């Protein structure tokens, strides 16, 4: 009996797929952009779209914005728009925030401080030459004679300006040797006392941790030597290393600024990244007079494109400001005290506050930076896993690393703490952490193992 041929019908499957409208896709694209990328997009559109305009800048002091925002904007101008008038007495007064938050490279950090000094135009030129001659660790590698030849100024003037710069933050900057770097960071009494003698006469022995040898060389009691060395260890042998060493073009551009304002926090979006764009009124009036239908359609299309970009830029500004405010409220102790007080936080925590999807928060914080009283941080810095503490609030991983760093800095150099002992010490503080995690965090901090930290007598 012949086999029956069964005709198979095609298998139908149903798949769900999210299809974004072009306008929504463009909005999400703008939200994801970093500061430099967005600035380029806006500039390209300004060059190509005759309907889009960037209004002439207005003196921020004449705006009708609330006082906290006006002050924040003036602060931003002061920190990022420093110009050399060339005349004494016209330099703005120092603002502590300008020295800690806005600059992201060592050269910028020192440059702001230089502009705040009551120096002549020639002295500031010498200062810029000195700053440009510093290496990544903050040491001056050019000689006084070379700098004198470069600037065309007497060696005595170069020495005078160098002394001014060596008083800048961070302490120890612009030194010509490790000895000078460490001595410049000391209090005058320590520099004239035993710590200064150790640095001036026993640096090789100090590097080897030969405490007994130093005690014999200086005819001093061993315990006094150990105490003096503990003071020296608090100093930084490379004061410039804490700053971004990438070229200025790669420096982080803050999207928002957060500063204390009364009992709360004032949030200011960086207007250089998201300027107040507008539609050209001349082009709008022109479209009504055009007889050519194609020309009218062209102007209308460009107008809609400009309006869409303005909506997207404004929405990005609003979203980042809302996220920044939610972070400031959730991490208030960090903004008051610094890294040690950073609490555990995840995307869901902020998404619930803003009543948005966590994916929106994720897109918003990607590659975005905020300027805080403690420096410039990437948004994602504030999102960290945490460790439960029985005797107080939970600690974030970042705060725990800070705790580890301080424990190692305070240890006895002759008996440094192993990773297991560090974990046990943290457990006695009711912080449950494994030895392996301690090792991981110590390595991420760039700190050597205990056997490498041990001092030999």
Layout of SSEs?
Blueprint: H1 22-32, H2 35-48, E1 52-53, H3 67-80, H4 96-100, H5 106-115, H6 121-132, H7 144-151, H8 155-165, H9 178-185, H10 188-192, H11 194-201, H12 203-208, H13 211-218, H14 222-233, E2 256-261, E3 264-269, E4 278-279, H15 281-289, H16 293-330, H17 332-337, H18 347-354, H19 358-365, E5 369-372, E6 375-378, E7 386-387, E8 395-396, H20 397-409, H21 419-428, H22 435-444, H23 450-453
Parallel strand pairs: 2-5
Antiparallel strand pairs: 1-4, 2-3, 5-6, 7-8
Helix pairs in contact: 1-16, 5-6, 6-7, 6-8, 7-8, 11-14, 15-16, 18-19, 21-22
Structure in a nutshell:
This protein is 52% helix and 6% strand. By secondary structure, it is an alpha+beta fold.
**Distance N to C terminus:** 101 Å
The 3D shape can be described as flat
- Look at the structure and give the mean pLDDT: 76
Largest beta sheet: strand ordering: 3-2-5-6
Radius of gyration: 29 Å
How many β-strand stretches?
A: 8
Task: Report the uncertain regions.
Answer: 1-20, 58-73, 75-103, 245-250
For the biggest sheet, the summary is: 4 strands, mixed
What is the number of helices?
A: 23
β content, as a range? 5-15%
Query: Which class best fits the helix and strand makeup?
Result: alpha+beta
Level of helix content? 40-55%
